[in-house]
């Protein structure tokens, strides 16, 4: 597929684009940001998925065997690269700061809200699987957007409501390691639980994809690409990684028992369940 393909052009011309630190990104799947090269690859993968489905439908109508065609998996979704599951190193503290200077629309109240809700969301993931988030408040006053002593920064970013929040995956470049908060997050009428939004985004930080890309998800859910994913649990419409779509999902965005099972397949049990001996 070239950049002249209709699908790429449709995505490329979409109004859902943002400029961050001088780079243009396209918003896909609600909260995933792709640069132009990634957008082309995404379009190629979407086209391949559509062709496979069309072939499967045609084979089913003709009662032919589905040779070389596989259904989408039904599991909580992890990320795979070069046939290996993507995760953070077991020795790594996932450190972050909340950049106070960026909270222009939210002001001090917005900054304090994000600090509190990030700690709550991070703690829930720590109680779920074997990872450790470390908040470094001493770096909140940094005038750098990417302080060198943390893995990622949390910052307010005016996306014009194109997303509520957006994070990154472990295998993305270091300059993409940021968790962005749109001012729509502060609205009292926000549909989703505010801590839940951050639980969802931290799920991406840990390497988990959206749950509603599974084949069992209802037709009303976004049709997203499954390239580079791995199956972890059975489909869970209540998952923290599932959008509210097609009449399923939950606005609470809570971590479910199936989420725990899937997360522990990647990261193991919570570190608090062990007695570490040196």
Question: What features would you describe in this structure?
Answer:
The structure is a single chain. The chain is α/β, with parallel strands linked by helices and 278 residues long. It has two domains: 6-71; 94-213 and 216-267, Collagenase (Catalytic Domain) (3-Layer(aba) Sandwich), CATH 3.40.390. The protein is 27% helix and 15% strand. The protein is built from five helices and eleven strands, in the order αβββαβββαββββαβα. The protein has helices at 6-12, 36-61, 107-126, 194-205, 257-267; strands at 17-20, 23-28, 32-34, 77-81, 84-85, 94-98, 133-135, 152-156, 165-166, 178-181, 229-231. The strands form three sheets. A five-stranded mixed β-sheet has the order 7-6-8-10-9, covered by helices on one side. The model is unreliable at 64-75 (pLDDT under 50).
- List the secondary-structure elements in sequence, H or E: HEEEHEEEHEEEEHEH
Which CATH architecture of the largest domain?
A: 3-Layer(aba) Sandwich
State the assembly state of the protein chains. single chain
The fold-level CATH name of the largest domain is: Collagenase (Catalytic Domain)
Mean pLDDT: 83
Strand order of the largest sheet: 7-6-8-10-9
């Amino acid at each position: 597929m070239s950049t002249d393909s209709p699908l790429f052009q449709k995505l490329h011309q979409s109004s859902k684009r943002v400029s961050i630190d001088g780079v243009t990104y396209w918003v896909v799947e609600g909260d995933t940001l792709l640069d132009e090269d990634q957008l082309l690859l995404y379009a190629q993968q979407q086209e391949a998925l559509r062709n496979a489905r069309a072939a499967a439908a045609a084979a089913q109508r003709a009662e032919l065997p589905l040779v070389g065609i596989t259904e989408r998996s039904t599991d909580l979704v992890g990320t795979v690269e070069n046939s290996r599951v993507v995760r953070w190193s077991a020795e790594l503290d996932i450190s972050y700061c909340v950049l106070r200077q960026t909270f222009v629309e939210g002001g001090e109240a917005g900054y304090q809200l994000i600090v509190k809700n990030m700690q709550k969301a991070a703690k829930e993931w720590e109680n779920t699987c074997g990872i450790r988030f470390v908040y470094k408040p001493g770096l909140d006053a940094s005038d750098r957007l990417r302080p060198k002593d943390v893995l990622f920064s949390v910052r307010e970013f005016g996306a014009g409501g194109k997303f509520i929040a957006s994070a990154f995956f472990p295998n993305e470049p270091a300059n993409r390691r940021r968790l962005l908060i749109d001012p729509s997050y502060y609205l009292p009428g926000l549909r989703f639980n505010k801590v839940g939004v951050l639980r969802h985004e931290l799920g991406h930080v840990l390497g988990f994809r959206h749950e509603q890309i599974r084949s069992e998800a209802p037709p009303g859910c976004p049709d997203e690409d499954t390239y580079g994913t791995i199956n972890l649990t059975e489909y869970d419409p209540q998952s923290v990684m599932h959008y509210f779509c097609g009449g399923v999902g939950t606005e609470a965005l809570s971590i479910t028992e199936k989420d725990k099972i899937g997360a522990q397949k990647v990261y193991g049990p919570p570190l608090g369940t062990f007695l570490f001996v040196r």
